[in-house]
Write a structure and sequence with these properties.
Length: 367
């Protein structure tokens, strides 16, 4: 027995060019699942087309969007948008059974499509729907799936290098699906940049017929009841976000964050301990196990800047940190640092912004 351990899956293999197995040659092109739900496409789909474009260009292959839905305008519109955001072609599975997302028919349809057209790489959004679907499809295909990636690249031998946080977010590891195809990965919304939209772009539509039978699907949708509370939170796509951490010291003091957010017309959120203490809802948590945000302005008050928080906010254009401790890690990545007591500064900031902003914002604050 050799003393040399086998290479770890997380080992960087750059430079170690290796011939891929012959049967992998049947798998070509990069696919992005276009997440269409109740007539709207989740914007993570366009972010993934931007990331997929880079992978496809590096591999010298085509980029395809995959659209599943009921026959109709919304499905066709999603298809057209996929081309505007960079797809060269789009696979289309239209069936009334696919009107609303259900794991069974979606997983079956996507698995059949993959088996028929064999993509090299398949990307999905790490949304509630995307995670549910990706897990089922990877299991049906008996292939590897790297979840919640923060970086995607093509290695020297053409393998997908999917990087994601590990060990509670304190390390990043790069994972390869070496022995199976397709290589699957999910990426959370706002991790990748949205590519520019070119409305003149067009592409090929490849329709695909799937054998679906409603009588054989055990899940039925009786009624759709939207979760009003969660749909109110638009943290991931907000231009301005104000967030608080344990430094605020009490749930009552969190109102200072809400006030400043209202004055700025911003969304509010917080660090994980605030969710755990019940000061804010889980849909307002920012960070590795919460939302990834990419606002123009992020104001963080009483947040230390632990790595698990940092990974969710470092895409912000401008980070303003308020913290009493000048050595707090958040000052390592904030653009503007204010060393002071947030509990005293927040009301003064709110008042100053209120004076400058419109009566509408002031009314909201007063209300
Ligand atoms: C697997 C895993 C996943 C995680 N996921 C997330 C995640 O998604 N999001 C997340 O946020 N965390 C996450 N965490 C937790 C993370 O490691 C930190 O524990 C957390 O971010 C700390 O929250 P905090 O900054 O609010 O609190 P603390 O670390 O306690 O920091 C409080 C800060 O407030 C400052 N302060 C105190 N008083 C004041 C004052 N009056 N004015 C101004 N500043 C003041 C202090 O100097 C300190 O820097 C995760 C941890 C693990 C292990």
């Amino acid at each position: 027995m050799s003393d040399t351990p086998p290479p770890a899956p997380t080992q960087s293999r750059a430079g170690a060019k290796k011939e891929l197995p012959e049967h992998f040659r049947a798998y070509k092109h990069v696919w992005v699942f276009v997440e269409l739900e109740r007539g709207a496409v989740h914007p993570v789909s366009w972010e993934l087309l931007g990331a997929g474009r880079k992978l496809a260009d590096k591999l010298g292959v085509e980029l395809a969007g995959v659209v599943l839905g009921a026959p109709g305008d919304a499905t066709r519109a999603a298809l057209a948008e996929a081309f505007c955001y960079g797809a060269d072609l789009a696979y289309l599975i239209e069936d009334p059974i696919l009107a609303d997302y259900r794991n069974e028919p979606y997983a079956k349809a996507l698995t059949q499509l993959v088996n028929a057209h064999k993509p090299e790489i398949l990307l999905l959004g790490a949304t509630t729907l995307g995670r549910d679907l990706a897990g089922s499809v990877a299991t049906s295909l008996l292939t590897g799936l790297t979840a919640d990636c923060t970086e995607l690249a093509v290695d020297a031998d053409g393998s997908l290098a999917a990087t994601r946080p590990t060990f509670g977010g304190s390390l990043l590891c790069t994972i390869y699906t070496l022995n199976y195809r397709p290589q699957m990965a999910t990426v959370r919304p706002r991790v990748m940049l949205t590519p520019s939209r070119d409305e003149k772009r067009e592409g090929r539509i490849v329709p695909f017929a799937v054998d679906l039978d409603e009588d054989k699907i055990i899940t039925k949708i009786i009624k759709f009841i939207p979760d009003r509370e969660s749909s109110k939170t638009n943290l991931a796509f907000a231009d301005v976000v104000v967030a608080g951490g344990l430094g605020l010291q009490s749930a009552e003091n969190f109102q200072l964050i809400r006030n400043l957010a209202a004055a700025l017309g911003a969304e509010f959120g917080g660090s994980r301990p605030l969710t755990q203490k019940g000061w804010i809802g889980a849909d307002r948590q920012i960070g590795q196990t919460g939302k990834t945000i990419r606002p123009k302005l992020y104001i963080a008050a009483g947040i230390s800047g632990a790595v698990q928080h940092r990974v969710g906010v470092e895409g912000a254009d401008c980070i303003v940190a308020i913290n009493t401790d000048k050595n707090a890690p958040i000052f390592d990545f904030a653009h503007i640092g204010i060393v002071t007591d947030a509990i005293r500064l927040l009301p003064a900031l709110t008042e100053a912004f209120c004076k400058r902003l419109s009566p509408h914002h002031r009314d909201r604050l007063a209300g």
